[in-house]
Specification:
Layout (H helix, E strand, L loop, with lengths): L2 E7 L2 H13 L5 E6 L5 H17 L4 E5 L5 H9 L6 E4 L3 H9 L6 H4 L10 H13 L1 E3 L2 E3 L19 E7 L7 H9 L4 H4 L10 E4 L7 H4 L8 E8 L5 E7 L3 H17 L7
Parallel strand pairs: 1-2, 1-3, 3-4, 8-9
Antiparallel strand pairs: 5-6, 7-10, 9-10
Length: 274
């Protein structure tokens, strides 16, 4: 498990750490440092240096997250890289921190940076079984999974900050046209859209015509990270169709999705004010 250092201006680092604790619980080996008005910058640099030295002595890898390129935290870490080995990412936000925390048990930083790992613990079983639970029904208070569709997956960890990209191959009992599929995607409205919940994307799914889309860097924040981007839908030589889908794993798939669930439960009367 690698160590995480959050180093920002003001109280941002402590706020991110506290908020992450509310979502995933208190985590070991995470420290927050802040450049605040009137602080002793040399003393602060020494504190960070001691943290890096301790990790080095313990044989731990370190991931440093700073807030602003060429700001004081960023420049301080650039200086410290002369004396210590660590991985440094700037532009820290809550989804980035949550992803860094959730990835700590998946491998070392050296394995994950500029590398592809053909395994994500538990992800393949979840990807195959969770949809069947959603398509299933409740019997005697328990979820009875659906028998179809048949799903098989291969999950690979790639070095991006956010986003799940899926290459999908699909067969239908009755093959629709490409135009019918795109129309169903773009006009889909679920209960969150019908109820106009605050966090619900107005357009849940969009189809992108460009051959090189969707892309994580360009499309991950569609509908504030709550929408799904589809692309490259075409016929296949073995299956009916193939396409690429992109979702925001830490917004749609985690924090934002949890907020949306709470909004839905409130709208349906399951959560009420005291």
């Amino acid at each position: 498990m690698y160590k995480i250092i959050i180093f920002t201006h003001g109280t941002l680092s402590k706020g991110l750490l506290n908020t992450s604790s509310l979502i995933v619980g208190e985590q070991p080996e995470i420290e927050a440092f802040s450049v605040e008005l009137g602080c002793d910058l040399q003393d602060l640099k020494e504190q960070v240096s001691k943290s890096l030295k301790k990790a080095e002595e313990e044989g731990k890898e370190v991931l440093v997250l700073t807030d602003l390129m060429y700001g004081t935290p960023f420049n301080t870490m650039v200086e410290l890289q002369k004396d210590y080995k660590f991985y440094h990412i700037t532009g820290v936000n809550l989804p980035m921190l949550l992803e860094a925390i959730n990835s700590r048990n998946e491998g070392t930083l050296a394995e994950m940076v500029e590398n592809i790992i053909p395994f994500i613990g538990g992800e393949e079983e979840k990807s195959e079984q969770e949809p069947l639970r959603l398509f299933g029904k409740v019997v005697d208070g328990k979820i009875e999974k659906a028998a179809a569709p048949l799903i098989t997956t291969q999950c690979i960890r790639v070095p991006v900050l956010d986003g799940h990209t899926a290459a999908v191959f699909v067969n239908f009992e009755k093959k629709p046209t490409k135009e019918e599929i795109i129309d169903r995607w773009e006009n889909f409205k679920g209960l969150p859209q019908e109820l106009e919940l605050p966090s619900a994307p107005k357009q849940f799914i969009r189809y992108m015509e460009e051959d090189n889309r969707p892309q994580v860097k360009l499309d991950i924040d569609f509908e504030n990270g709550m929408g799904i981007s589809m692309g490259r839908l075409r016929e296949d030589t073995m299956f009916d169709y193939k396409f690429v889908g992109l979702s925001h794993n830490t917004v749609r798939g985690a924090a934002g999705g949890a907020v949306l669930c709470a909004e839905l439960l409130t709208a349906q009367g399951y959560i009420t004010a005291k």
